[in-house]
Amino acid sequence: MRSKIVAGNWKMNKNLSETKALLSELLEKLPKTEAKVIVAPTYVNLESAARILQSSDIKVAAQNMHFAKSGAYTGEISADMLLNINVDTVIIGHSERRAYFGETDDLLAKKVEAALANNMQVIFCFGEELEERKSGNHFNVVESQLKNGLFNLPAEAWQHIVLAYEPVWAIGTGETASPEQAQEMHAFIRKTITEAYDTSIANEVSILYGGSVKPSNAQEIFSKPDVDGGLIGGAALVADDFIAIIKAI
Ligand code: PGA
Predict the structure, then answer these.
(1) Which of 103, 143, 166, 186 is the catalytic position?
(2) How far apart are CA 227 and CA 69, in angstroms?
(3) Residue 124: CB partners within 8 Å, gap ≥ 6?
(4) pLDDT at 171 over 90
């Protein structure tokens, strides 16, 4: 079901003590909100985070997972390992995974399939690079990322998917897509899903914007009709900023 979501992707930041400190500050300051609030700490702190947040309104997500059930995949973690510590949500396809760890559309499709087979919720990330936008190719790129990563899914799987459009040129750069650029792409994403499936799936899926969202620009971006919230990186590491972004929704 389409809902408002603010998710914090902590990336490779915050050790265990810092994780606990940030979570307790968030718990103390979290306003009443209809938005779903999610945080994604690093693997080693997921179990603690899940325990600390278990009776709260903040959900925990993993930043990645492997597609296999178990086995000889040094350094990787499985869906079962996440579920066993009460983490049932996973970010898949973040641009940093694609760019620095060589994750391809095919691999991401396998990960999505594995997560869904385990009844997990997926936050699927995609977005174009600067050159692709400059050359006017951004719609094609986004369409092909969606098609290759997700369009093999049966219609009923879409209730477990949240989309995060994150133009790579806006991630961690301080440069944000304008609210109009975000709205334009989000509307295009719904149109693409309508063509591949139908309007009800396109209208029911939550589409987050990600890329340098901060307290000063969140409200304007979130006010756009096809933007259902944000995937927040840097600003999610500072409790007051993350709270301000939650308030903006
Ligand atoms: P940023 O990161 O907010 O620091 O740009 C967003 C993301 O990578 O999800």
Answers:
(1) 166
(2) 34
(3) 92, 93, 108, 112, 149, 150, 161, 162, 163, 164
(4) no
